[in-house]
Each structure stands twice: as structure tokens, then as C-alpha cells.
Specification:
Blueprint: E1 25-27, E2 34-36, H1 39-75, H2 78-92, H3 99-103, H4 108-124, H5 129-139
Antiparallel strand pairs: 1-2
Helix pairs in contact: 1-2, 1-4, 1-5, 2-4
Length: 149
């Protein structure tokens, strides 16, 4: 295969804006595409905005589902035990639990609430602690016993 000619059109390289406008293109260190000096800040701002939007939506979803989680844990049944294990795993990560095993067999409302809890932890990080603490306090939950291995 012949090397591309100098000045040949490269489909991977974005076309500079403006007629005849020359810009120095930089290669982003984490991506294989090139950005102009003005594109990278815009991409970063869009990413930050998207992350904040997801975090806000995840927080609202968890707030709306707090009562479902509290009721499930207070019930003391098998579903409540699995929700409690997932809650403590999301709280501090010390209690490892199989996600598939814990979600299998949950009622759809409870499963949706657990997914909202995990989504809030994923998108909000430490900012979800206040909401998780509220669930722990309102349900009277205690850390589950670690399995003796």
C-alpha cells in the first residue's frame, strides 16, 4: 500500500473551520483522534455537564426510591436481606456480594430501587453517602455478618 500523498485528505483528521483557515492540531493523549486547540475545552465542558446531569438524575431517582428500600429492609424477608447486603456493599465496599445473585428474584419495584441506589453510588460517588445514610438510619439496618471462610 502506498503512503498517503502530502496534503491528501485524511478522513480521521477533522477539517478546520473556516475557509482556508490553518490550525495546529494536537493529538489528545487518551484518544486516537485529533482536536484543535478550541475543541478540547468544549469536549471537556460537555463531559463535565453530562456527568453532572447523570449525577443529578441518579440522586433524584434514589430519593424517590428510598421508601421502597427502607420498607424492603424492614420486612426482614429474603428480599430485604439481599437489599441490605447490597446497601452495605454500596456503603463501604467491605461486604462483597454477587450482584446477579442478589438481584435475582427481587420484585420489580425493589429491583428498580436497588438499581437506582447503585446508579447513585456510581454517578455521585461520595455525594451519595447522605442518601445511603438516610436509608440505613430509617431502616434500622445493621452491617451483615461476614462469612467465615
Amino acid at each position: 500500500m502506498n503512503p498517503p500523498r502530502a496534503g491528501a485528505w485524511d478522513p480521521l483528521k477533522p477539517v478546520p473551520r473556516g475557509f482556508g483557515e490553518e490550525r495546529a492540531f494536537k493529538k489528545h493523549p487518551m484518544k486516537s483522534i485529533q482536536y484543535s486547540d478550541n475543541d478540547f475545552p468544549r469536549e471537556a465542558l460537555c463531559s463535565i455537564r453530562r456527568s453532572r446531569t447523570l449525577a443529578d438524575a441518579a440522586g433524584e431517582s434514589l430519593k424517590a426510591n428510598c421508601s421502597v428500600l427502607v420498607t424492603a429492609i424492614r420486612s426482614g424477608g429474603g428480599q430485604g436481606r439481599r437489599v441490605e447486603e447490597l446497601l452495605w456493599s454500596a456503603w463501604n465496599g467491605d461486604y462483597k456480594t454477587g450482584l446477579c445473585d442478589s438481584l435475582t428474584g427481587l420484585d420489580s419495584d425493589i429491583a428498580e430501587a436497588v438499581i437506582a441506589m447503585l446508579g447513585a453510588r456510581a454517578h455521585m460517588g461520595g455525594d451519595a453517602d447522605d442518601l445511603l445514610r438516610k436509608i440505613i438510619e430509617n431502616s434500622g439496618s445493621q452491617p451483615p455478618q461476614k462469612n467465615q471462610e
